[in-house]
Amino acid sequence: MTKTDVVVIGAGAAGIGAAITLAEASKNVILLEKGNRYGGAGMFGAQGLFAVNSQQQQASNSSLTLAQAYQEMMTYTHYRSNAPLTKAILSKSANTIDWLADHGLATELVNNTQEVHQDRPRVYHQYIDKFAGFERLMQHFLDHGGILKTETAAKSLKYDGQQVTGVVVEHDGHETLINCQAVIVADGGYIGNPEMVKQYLDIDAKNLFSMGERKATGDGISMLADLGADTKSLGTFENHAASVVSDSDPKWHNDTIFTLTNLPLLWVNAAGKRFVDEGIVYDFALWGNATYQAGGYYYFVIDQHLIDQLKTSALPLTHSFERTFTTLAHQEVTHHVGPFTEIDADLAQAVEKGAAFKGNTLAELSAQLHVSAGQLTATVARYNDLVQRGHDEDFYKAGAFMNYPVQQGPFYAIKARSTSLGTIGGIETNEKLEALKPNAHPIKGAFVAGNNASGMYDTSYPTIEGISCAFAWNSGRIAGESASHLIETGTQNYYEA
Questions:
Q1: Do residues 458 and 80 touch, judged by C-beta distance below 8 A?
Q2: Given 3.40.190.10, 3.40.50.720, 3.30.450.40, 3.50.50.60, which CATH number is that of 2-203+212-236+424-496?
Q3: DSSP 3-state assignment of 275?
Q4: Looking at the whole model, is its pTM more than 0.90?
Q5: Residue 121, preceding bond cis, omega within 30 degrees?
Q6: Which segments in the chain show pLDDT lower than 50?
C-alpha cells in the first residue's frame, strides 16, 4: 500500500498538465500511465494547440479577442455547452502557451492549417521540437518530486461513501492500493474500446475509422460511472475529415487515393444521391460531420477522362491536407495536385483492397455499390448538367470546383469513411473540472480532464483549430489547481466554500 496526496490517471497532455501543476504546488502526486510511454494523443497525435490573446498573437496584432472566441464557441454549440467551463478554458489558453514554454515545450504561432481558415485570425500554436519538449516537461515533473508509474493501470476507485480515498492499480499482474485524497481522471476517453464505441455511436461502427489513442479504453469513465458520475454526454465523437481504408489490409495506404479523397469532386451517399457541397472538404470538422450525418460513409466518383488527364497533367485544385503538411515543414502551398503517372495501378490496387469499385457503365457501378442504377445515373446526369452550366444550384459549390464532369467509362467509386480522432464526450463537469453526479453535485475528491471531461462541446468538434489539444492542457492545469486547493483546505472546507 502506498500513500500520496493526488493520483493522476493518464499521462497525456491533460494528465501531464495536472501532474506538473500539483508537483509545483509541493503536493505529493503519482502519475499513472498504463502504456510504456507517456505523451498520449497530445504528443503522438497533436502538432500544436489553440490559444487566444497569447503574447505571440499580441505581437502579430491578432484581432481575435477572448470575447470573440467565447462567442464563437458558444454560438457553434448553440449554447448547449457549458458556458463557465468554456470561459475558463479560453481564459487560461494564453497563459498555457507561456507555461508550456517555461517548462520546456515552446510553440510558434503559424498560419491556420486549413484552407478555409486563412482569412481568420491566427490561433494555432505549433509545437517546436515536440518530443524533446515533452521530455523536458516530464523531467520537470520528476525534478519537483513527482512520481511517474508506467505500465501501471488504474483498476478501480476507492470510495468511503463520502469521498474518493484511493486507487487500486495493477502493475505486472499484481494489484496494489494507493491511498489518496483526490484523483484526477485523464486517460483519454474511450475511442480504443470497440464495445463502448459501438454502444454510443450513431452510425454502424464498421464505417468508423479511428485515428485515436488505442489505450483510451474508457477505464476512467467506467470507474467514475461506478461512483454515480453523470455520463449523459458520452456519445460525442471528434469527427475529422474522412478516410479511405481497406478492411482486408488495415495498414494499406496509397498516396494517390489519399490525394483524390481530399478534393471537391462528386460525392454520393449510400442511396446514390449527392448530399453536400463537396467544397466542405476544406474544413475538416465540417467535412467529418457531413460524413457522419450521411451514415458514416460516401463514395467519390470519377471517370476515365479525369483519370487520363491526371496521368499527364496537374489539376488546379488544393489538396485539403497540403496546407497542414506544408505548415509543419515551413513550405509553401502549391495549390495543385498531380500528375499521377501510376494512377491506373493505384486505382486497381484500391479495387483489389476493397476500398474502391469499378464499372464500365454507371449501371455496373451501381450494382457493386448496391444502389439504384436509375438513381445513380440521375445523380450523375444532374451533376454533369450543373458542371456544364458552371453553377451549382443544388448545394452551391464554388464555381472553381465545377470543372470535372463524370461522363466517360469506366467509372470508379471510392468509399470514404467517417473518421474520428477520439471521443470528446465524457463525465459531466464544471469550471473547476470536478466530476459531477446527475444532480450536478460533485463526487468529492474526483476531478476529470481532457477527453474524459464533457461540457466544452455540443454534438461535434468545432471548427476552431487546435481546440481539443488546448482543452486537454488547460483542463488538466485547472483540475490540478482544484485538487491542490482541496489538499490545502481539506475536503470539507473545499466543498463548503
A1: yes
A2: 3.50.50.60
A3: coil
A4: yes
A5: no
A6: none
